Amino acid sequence: MKIDDVATKFEALGNPTRLKIYRALVRAGEAGTPVGRLQERLKIAPSTLSHHLKTLVTAGLIRQVREATTLNCHANYDVMRGLMDFMVAECCADAVESKDTKSAA
Amino acid sequence: MKIDDVATKFEALGNPTRLKIYRALVRAGEAGTPVGRLQERLKIAPSTLSHHLKTLVTAGLIRQVREATTLNCHANYDVMRGLMDFMVAECCADAVESKDTKSAA
DNA sequence: TCGATCATTCTAGTCTGATCGAATTATCAA
DNA sequence: TTGATAATTCGATCAGACTAGAATGATCGA
């Protein structure tokens, strides 16, 4: 994952409202959550919610699947894993080593 | 870590320039990197760099230690670890399970 | 087709963030 | 103290983000 892509995803997660949406979707697991239910639970104006969902979809963090009249939203776990990998591999190789050294000392 | 704090940290990492700064600091390890060296390596205007560093410090992602005339910048590895923990514990418990189930199937 | 529900898009207002040049503060060497 | 270097703060501009009400599009039951 390129660093600009990572930044885009972090930016998407950097808004409190969007982070709550994302967390709700991740917790929902494979079943996902319809837009309407998110709206009820998080008490967000529909237009605002839709705006944030679009941002999350564009960032690749979630996807939406139409099921009859409702739109079901799912977290993209692979992308989340990619972010974690970036934090660990691209960033934290030295960090972990340093930390271990420190802890051991 | 509260969800708003997490959002603040993600937001800080959500700017490409800041993410590059942060990555450079994480890679620098315990030794850290002076502001001036960051400025040389990343080719950012001093005032812009200072602005972003302030944001990272405020978010708690890095800290600065004065050493004579230079300011040495360090990544806060504990905070990074806290972010990872949030992703895993607050978010991904179901995700990992679902993934394993899927992979096994 | 009509009506109802679900969700998005449009439009607009407000606000915050990114950037950089210029001026300022801080530290040290001589 | 003076001069030099390091870094921040100030001031201004510009672009983009957040929010939400109103209007529109999509889907299905009757």
From TrEMBL, chains A, B:
InterPro entries: ArsR-like_HTH, HTH_ArsR_DNA-bd_dom, Metal_resp_trans_reg, WH-like_DNA-bd_sf, WH_DNA-bd_sf. CDD domains: HTH_ARSR (cd00090). Keywords: DNA-binding, Transcription, Transcription regulation. It comes from the Bacteria. Pfam families: HTH_20. Residues 1-95 form the HTH arsR-type domain. One of its GO terms (molecular function) is DNA binding. This is Helix-turn-helix transcriptional regulator. It comes from Rhodopseudomonas palustris. The lineage of its organism: Bacteria, Pseudomonadati, Pseudomonadota, Alphaproteobacteria, Hyphomicrobiales.
